[in-house]
């Protein structure tokens, strides 16, 4: 079954990535179809596996400061900065709704 | 020393005895890189720093104090590893112009041993792909496209168009690294392997491709794709060299908490002569649909080789094999959706001019910076992670992952030491044919034989076996038990010796280095 425009819109919001064109939407449809094959496998009583190293203890190091003081290096790759701040456009402004933003999904 | 020499046995000795200098090796490689530019294997060539490193190495040799076997050895690194002061792009517009402020741990380890970093190699954008065709710097060409062996076998269609339209892909996503090693422009290269990205191009380019056990080599500085499956990969011209590289890279890294804490002891590979105590498993499910009859025959011949030498060869079953690619598809896209979230233009990488809001800036940056493949995987991943889909897809895939990993555990517990399988379904496809299908379809087809090893975290190696009827390399894969790289490589080395894979006959290389072929062996396995 087809993914609804609401879900597609929701995905664009979550991912902050656009579908671009009908091919993009097709791509998702095919990906879901492909993934549906998983349901052929009987996984009753099987625990999900997070990591192949699950039988081992995760390494924790001592809480000692061993490096840092690299503000200059870290700021070098940023395009917009002021003193020691990364500069971002205003926040708390949600992405425009489907009808108001430039997206391929508008036509659907 | 010849460009085709083994590191431990020949090159190291030649450097120590002064028969060749690090500067000479470096210059030869740089010159060869220039004359093989059409392969598009390198994104960045770090000529100045490489020559400087070579000079420093030379000083050490003169003082009789080389740092080790790798001192002065030219190597190349896939462009998804951070390299301080050198651009790291991941073949994406998102990171064009990004100069890493630090070295990935594996890069640092190589430099600490005196290796000479020639440059960064080409790949599929963000390592997503199986052809090394989907990066912003264009596709990588398989050096074998220009080999005497391939040209002799190709049926000329039109005259001058031949070479231009006939060239074959390297496989991927570490195609640049594989091409670089295959064309002698470096002695070894780093790749990455998440679903087969080191073994696949190794098989297509006729070089050794090692995927170490997950947790053995540090991923710190390797720009992540799938945190639970990524590993740095090693590409070399012979198994012994892979062991040398492994020895210098493996071990716990406090900066990567997913590296195991066990002590790792570098090893030299013994020359195995008696395989009678070995048990080789042939997983029947690896006779996958689409497997070429040629490769099937080679696989069978290889099994016979072991049998005739006295090893126990048994058919085994890994029942969930055909679901591993589906499982991978879900887990990979899910982890990608998370890992790619860091690219928002704020701290590094491409930044859009859009200023209306942070969200719209992020959206525009990602719109401009990522190609279709990357965007497609991010969106799919987000879909599978939606609340309404989480159990159905993501958790389900994690359960199937356990079943796949358990398949291997059962087989190894039954007394099998090593599994022998094909690496790819066929030899390298011509580029024009490869691009007829989209990236996801290709990846799903091409990763089928390699990615279960990533799912289970097991070590695996592709060894060049023979030339196909088209004159192109075919590799076979060995999969071993967790952290048993020594056993895996010992068997691989024995196999390598039996098959005597032929040296590539490349005009460009012959012109530069006439004694490269003094160790030429005749093809005896095909």
UniProtKB/TrEMBL annotation, chain A:
One of its GO terms (cellular component) is glutamyl-tRNA(Gln) amidotransferase complex. Pfam families: GatC. Keywords: Transferase. GO terms for biological process: glutaminyl-tRNAGln biosynthesis via transamidation; mitochondrial translation; regulation of translational fidelity. This is GATC amidotransferase. The gene is Gatc. It comes from Hypocryptadius cinnamomeus. GO terms for molecular function: transferase activity. InterPro entries: Asp/Glu-ADT_sf_sub_c (IPR036113), GatC (IPR003837).
UniProtKB/TrEMBL annotation, chain B:
The keyword Transcription does not apply. HAMAP family: GatA. GO terms for cellular component: glutamyl-tRNA(Gln) amidotransferase complex; mitochondrion. Keywords: ATP-binding, Ligase, Mitochondrion, Nucleotide-binding, Protein biosynthesis, Transferase. The lineage of its organism: Eukaryota, Metazoa, Chordata, Craniata, Vertebrata. The gene is Qrsl1. This is GATA amidotransferase. GO terms for biological process: glutaminyl-tRNAGln biosynthesis via transamidation; mitochondrial translation. NCBIfam families: gatA. GO terms for molecular function: ATP binding; glutaminyl-tRNA synthase (glutamine-hydrolyzing) activity; transferase activity. Residues 28-147, 169-489 form the Amidase domain. InterPro entries: Amidase (IPR000120), Amidase_dom (IPR023631), AS_sf (IPR036928), GatA (IPR004412). Pfam families: Amidase. The keyword GTP-binding does not apply. Transmembrane segments: none annotated.
């Amino acid at each position: 079954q087809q993914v609804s425009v609401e879900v597609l819109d929701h995905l664009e919001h979550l991912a902050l990535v656009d579908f671009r064109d009908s091919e993009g939407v097709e791509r998702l449809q095919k990906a879901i179809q492909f993934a549906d094959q998983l349901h052929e496998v009987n996984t009753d009583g099987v625990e999900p596996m997070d990591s192949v190293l699950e039988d081992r203890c995760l390494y924790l190091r001592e809480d000692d400061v061993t490096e840092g003081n690299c503000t200059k290096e870290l700021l070098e790759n940023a395009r917009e900065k002021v003193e020691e701040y990364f500069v971002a456009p205003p926040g708390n402004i949600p992405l425009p709704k489907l009808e108001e933003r430039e997206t391929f999904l508008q036509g659907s | 020393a010849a460009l085709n020499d083994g590191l431990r046995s020949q090159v190291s000795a030649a450097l120590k005895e002064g028969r060749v200098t690090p500067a000479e090796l470096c210059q030869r490689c740089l010159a060869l890189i220039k004359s093989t530019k059409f392969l598009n294997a390198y994104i960045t060539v770090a000529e100045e720093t490489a020559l400087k490193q070579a000079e420093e190495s030379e000083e050490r040799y003169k003082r009789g104090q080389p740092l080790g076997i790798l001192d002065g050895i030219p190597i190349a690194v896939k462009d998804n590893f951070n390299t301080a002061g050198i651009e790291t792009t991941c073949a994406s517009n998102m990171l064009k112009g990004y100069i890493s402020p630090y070295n990935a741990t594996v890069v640092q380890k190589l430099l600490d041993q005196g290796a000479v970093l020639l440059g960064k190699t080409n790949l599929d954008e963000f390592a997503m792909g199986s052809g090394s065709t989907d990066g912003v710097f264009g596709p990588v060409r398989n050096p074998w496209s220009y080999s005497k062996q391939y040209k002799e076998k190709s049926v000329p269609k039109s005259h001058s168009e031949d070479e231009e339209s006939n060239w074959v892909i390297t496989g991927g996503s570490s195609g640049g690294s594989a091409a670089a090693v295959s064309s002698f422009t470096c002695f070894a290269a780093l790749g990455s392997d998440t679903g087969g990205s080191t073994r696949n191009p190794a098989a297509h380019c006729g070089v050794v491709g090692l995927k170490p056990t997950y947790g053995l080599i540090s991923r710190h500085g390797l720009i992540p794709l799938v945190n639970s499956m990524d590993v740095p990969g090693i590409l070399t011209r012979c198994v012994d060299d892979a062991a040398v590289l492994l020895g210098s890279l493996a071990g716990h890294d406090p900066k990567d908490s997913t590296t195991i804490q066990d002590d790792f002891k570098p090893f030299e590979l013994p020359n195995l002569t008696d395989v009678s105590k070995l048990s080789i498993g042939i997983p029947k499910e690896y006779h996958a649909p689409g497997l070429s009859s040629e490769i099937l025959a080679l696989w069978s011949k290889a099994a016979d080789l072991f049998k005739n030498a006295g090893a126990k060869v048994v058919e085994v079953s890994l029942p969930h094999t055909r679901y591993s690619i589906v499982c991978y598809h879900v887990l990979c896209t899910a982890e990608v959706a998370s890992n790619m979230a860091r690219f928002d233009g704020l701290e590094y990488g491409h930044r859009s001019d859009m200023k209306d809001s942070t969200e719209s800036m992020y959206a525009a940056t990602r719109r401009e910076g990522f190609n279709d493949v990357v965007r497609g995987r991010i969106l799919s991943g987000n879909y599978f992670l939606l609340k309404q889909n989480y159990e159905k897809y993501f958790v389900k895939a994690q359960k199937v992952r356990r079943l796949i990993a358990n398949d291997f555990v059962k087989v190894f517990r039954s007394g099998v030491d090593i599994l022998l399988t094909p690496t790819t379904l066929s030899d390298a496809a011509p580029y024009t044919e490869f691009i007829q299908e989209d990236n996801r379809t290709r990846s799903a087809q091409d990763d089928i034989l390699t990615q279960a090893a990533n799912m289970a975290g097991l070590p695996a190696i592709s060894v060049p076996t023979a030339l196909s009827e088209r004159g192109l390399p075919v590799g076979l894969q060995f999969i071993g038990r967790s952290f048993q790289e020594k056993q895996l490589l010992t068997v691989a080395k024995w196999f390598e010796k039996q098959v005597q894979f032929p040296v590539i006959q490349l005009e460009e290389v012959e012109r530069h280095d006439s004694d490269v072929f003094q160790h030429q062996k005749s093809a005896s396995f095909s």
